[in-house]
Design goal:
There is one protein chain. By secondary structure, this protein is mainly beta. The chain has a single domain (about 5-10, about 25-120), classed as Deoxyuridine triphosphatase (dUTPase) (Deoxyuridine 5'-Triphosphate Nucleotidohydrolase, Chain A), CATH 2.70.40.10. The chain is built from 1 helix and 11 strands, in the order E-E-E-E-E-E-H-E-E-E-E-E. The protein has one helix at about 65-70, and strands at about 5, 25-30, 35, 40-45, 50, 60-65, 75, 80-85, 90-95, 105, 110-120. The strands form 4 sheets. A 4-stranded antiparallel β-sheet has the order 2-11-6-8. The chain has a 3-stranded antiparallel β-sheet with strand order 4-9-7. The model has no long low-confidence stretch (mean pLDDT about 95).
């Protein structure tokens, strides 16, 4: 599948897969200077990148980089970013520092991952009744901790 991209800033980098088996491509920060996120602080980090997905049967999903999230506590403020197929603006990454120490991001640093996935738009239909299942309405830990 081909995904067109446009670099909106001369410092921007094309999305790139780090390894042949990578499921997501790295997104890099376009910053004028290093950005320090204090514990609990959020920031919108520009990538200088816009994309064109091939159609409404695709979505681009922005995920945290595991190294930043696990080692330093910097993750996405909205858990997963959703880029719809008709969006043509700059991809920006909402980050939050959930760690106990400040974290400084450098210009050009990899800050998130971009994964292209299929989409099925549902035909929602009102119903008076829904079918029964063994689980029923149980949720939020109803099946046990393990």
């Amino acid at each position: 599948m081909q995904v067109k991209y446009k670099l909106l800033d001369p410092r921007a980098k094309a999305p790139a897969y780090a390894t042949p088996g990578a499921a997501a491509a790295d997104l890099c920060a376009v910053l004028d200077a290093p950005l320090t996120l204090e514990p609990g602080q959020r920031a919108m980090v520009p990538t200088g990148l816009a994309i064109e997905l091939p159609g409404p049967d695709c979505v681009a999903l922005v995920y945290a980089r595991s190294g930043l999230a696990i080692k330093q506590g910097v993750t996405l403020s909205n858990c997963v970013g959703v880029i719809d197929s008709d969006y043509r603006g700059e991809i920006k990454v909402g980050l939050v520092n959930l760690g106990a120490a400040p974290v400084t991001l450098a210009p050009g640093e990899r800050v998130a991952q971009l994964c292209i996935a299929p989409v099925w738009q549902a035909a929602f239909a009102p119903a008076e009744e829904l079918s029964d299942t063994d689980r029923g309405t149980g949720g939020f830990g109803s099946t046990g901790r393990l």
